[in-house]
WecB/TagA/CpsF family glycosyltransferase (Streptomyces mesophilus), 269 residues
Amino acid sequence: MTALHTGPPSALPPAVAAATVPCAGVPIAAITPDEGAAAVVRLAAQGAAADVHLCNAYTLALADTDPDLHRLLRTAALNLPDGQGVVWANRLVHRDRTLPRARVYGPDLFLDVFATGQAVGLRHYLLGSTREVLDALTAELKTRCPRARIVGTEAPPFRDLTDEERAAQSARIAASGAQIVWLGLGTPKQDHEAARLAALHPAVYVAVGAAFDFVSGNKPQAPGWMQRTGLEWLFRLCSEPRRLWRRVLWGHPRFLLAAFRTPTKGPRS
């Protein structure tokens, strides 16, 4: 878990002040975990309309084959280096830059923003997963961050929503007064939804991946030493081989190809 920024809102750095470096043609913030959490809090406290994406190797591999996803990430408000492989690739490709050594890990960002946001009364909305996971997640968050304000939770169906359902969902988010909406819908669906919703209603929409499952205790997290050494993928593959084999066997080589091909080039089919 990263250290928390506990200063007042005025002490937080500008929301997206960090420089970016291209990774597989996508601008990734050169930002530390603390700075990432502070940036998200600042965006939300300012009432910004923003989409924030946690980019790991698989996300960038998908973007390298999907021009729509690649374009979405290129124009996003903030892309954070969620994968240790992304951090290492950026440090190798951009050796002329001094870049952070640590990734901005989704579950830690999630908890850090919840904890730090208590000081400014941030209003959170949880969108994704199942009702059982959301109930467990809400209970865990209230235990860890008793002053956190959760103004809505929603477990959408595991299918594409109709236009009427999308409109109703956006209306519920707006009516809740949420300043930050956490999306745990899976990649790349959550990335597309974050961008879509940010264009409809001012709030910060964070595509946070498996954070819901990990923080709620629904799925185990890799030991700290595996996370630090870039072996989290191995732990997760062993835990869910049928679901994650393609992510590893196809995604990792494709990411390496994209990251080291040319830093500024776009996707290839």
Summary: The first helix runs from residue 33 to 45. The longest strand covers residues 50-55. Strands lie at 20-23, 26-29, 50-55, 78-81, 123-128, 149-154, 180-184, 204-207.
